[in-house]
């Protein structure tokens, strides 16, 4: 599964247009695609004729509610193309997660538990470098940066590259950068000059395909259709199909369908034959137990066994449902450090949550 985020902190450079039409073009190429709308404006949904009245839960619930998975909010929109929609309340996520550990990994953790197998996940990001964009980048192996022929868009490209460098340093996560010349008008000297400057500074990351300036894309969006459906014979449709072809041709360079090794550190409990495997790295502990709603919050809980690397684990058979739990390390109660899902208990502390 390839995860691509479409990012540029400048608004109006065509992120949503690229996200919608790239996802639809990949679907047209018989790839199974999930488009995630991570922009509180919800324009990806509008561009696919999905209104906020058409769904009850959105990416806001996915990022904030432990019991809500991405599969629970997905809406089929076209053959091979599903949408995880957004609403304006998504703008409040940054404030609500401000004091939560691992808040930049929320989306990655949810994507690691997708039940449906997709070939591609395309994430439409907001026009800012904040928590939502950090979540998208931390979950992605690749990012597409649309750059229209303007000085401000070019400046936004530099800022995104600085953000990716910060991500590499803070989260030890590398994202493959792809720069896309978008809304390009080859007949103007200014457009050609901007394209030359992009190639001069970012040529190693440039996609060969360019997306031309055309009113057809705006017409398609107003009808709630991607260009490959609205006008399959248009120049824009052919360009997005060429972009999809260019990306698909590079699949051999990516481990499609495999989870990144770094995912394992924040997935939390693992579903295995016989139940749920809980584990915690505690090489200096003498006794580790787990307790929670599935043990009646017993102090004795269920003991874990230690391996040679200091990782304690056990497998517990748990009926379907959502359960709060904590580890007990040498008598000290702690939350699961590898599980991003948690809720605040009556004592103001955090209990980890597992959904079966």
Describe the protein's architecture and organization:
Helix content is 29%, strand content 22%. It has 11 helices and 17 strands. The strands form 3 sheets. It has a 7-stranded mixed sheet with strand order 3-4-2-5-1-6-7, with helices on both faces. The model is unreliable at 256-266 (pLDDT under 50).
Write the layout of secondary structure elements.
Blueprint (H helix, E strand, L loop, with lengths): L1 E5 L8 H14 L4 E5 L5 H4 L12 H6 L10 E4 L2 E4 L8 H4 L9 H6 L8 E5 L6 H9 L2 E6 L3 H21 L4 E6 L7 H14 L13 H7 L4 H4 L4 H14 L21 E3 L2 E7 L6 E5 L9 E2 L1 E2 L4 E6 L5 E8 L2 E3 L7 E3 L5 E6 L1
Parallel strand pairs: 1-5, 1-6, 2-4, 2-5, 6-7
Antiparallel strand pairs: 3-4, 8-9, 9-13, 10-11, 10-14, 12-13, 14-15, 14-17, 16-17
Helix pairs in contact: 1-11
Offer a concise description of the structure:
Helices cover 29% and strands 22% of the residues. It is α/β, with parallel strands linked by helices and 356 residues long. A 7-stranded mixed beta sheet has the order 3-4-2-5-1-6-7, with helices on both faces. Strands 10, 11, 14, 15, 16 and 17 form a 6-stranded antiparallel beta sheet that branches.
């Amino acid at each position: 599964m390839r995860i691509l985020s479409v990012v540029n902190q400048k608004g109006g450079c065509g992120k949503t247009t690229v996200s919608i039409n790239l996802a639809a073009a990949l679907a047209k190429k018989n790839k199974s695609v999930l488009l995630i709308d991570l922009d509180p404006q919800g324009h990806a949904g509008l561009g696919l004729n999905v209104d906020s009245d058409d769904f009850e839960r959105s990416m806001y619930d996915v990022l904030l509610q432990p019991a809500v998975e991405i599969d629970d909010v997905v809406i089929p929109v076209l053959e091979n193309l599903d949408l995880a929609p957004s609403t304006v309340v998504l703008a409040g996520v940054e404030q609500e997660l401000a004091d939560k550990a691992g808040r930049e990994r929320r989306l990655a953790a949810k994507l690691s538990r997708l039940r449906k197998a997709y070939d591609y996940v395309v994430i439409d990001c907001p026009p800012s470098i904040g928590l939502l964009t950090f979540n998208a980048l931390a979950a992605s192996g690749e990012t597409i940066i649309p750059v229209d022929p303007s000085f401000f868009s070019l400046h936004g490209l530099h800022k995104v590259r600085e953000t990716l460098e910060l991500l590499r340093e803070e989260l030890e996560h590398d994202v493959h950068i792809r720069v896309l010349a978008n809304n390009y008008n080859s007949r103007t000297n200014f457009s050609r000059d901007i394209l030359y400057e992009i190639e001069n500074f970012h040529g190693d990351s440039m996609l060969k395909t360019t997306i031309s300036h055309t009113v057809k894309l705006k017409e398609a969006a107003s009808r709630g259709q991607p260009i490959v459906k609205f006008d399959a014979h248009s120049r824009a449709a052919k360009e997005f199909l060429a972009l999809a072809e260019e990306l698909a041709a590079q699949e051999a360079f990516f481990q499609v369908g495999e989870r990144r090794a770094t995912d394992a550190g924040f997935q939390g409990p693992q579903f295995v034959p016989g139940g749920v495997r809980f584990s915690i790295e505690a090489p200096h502990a003498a006794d580790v137990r787990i307790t929670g709603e599935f043990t009646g919050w017993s102090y004795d809980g269920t003991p874990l066994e230690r391996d040679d690397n200091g990782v304690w684990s056990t497998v517990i058979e748990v009926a379907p449902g959502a359960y709060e739990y904590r580890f007990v390390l040498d008598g000290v109660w702690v939350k699961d450090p590898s599980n991003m899902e948690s809720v605040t208990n009556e004592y103001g502390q955090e209990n980890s949550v597992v959904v079966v």
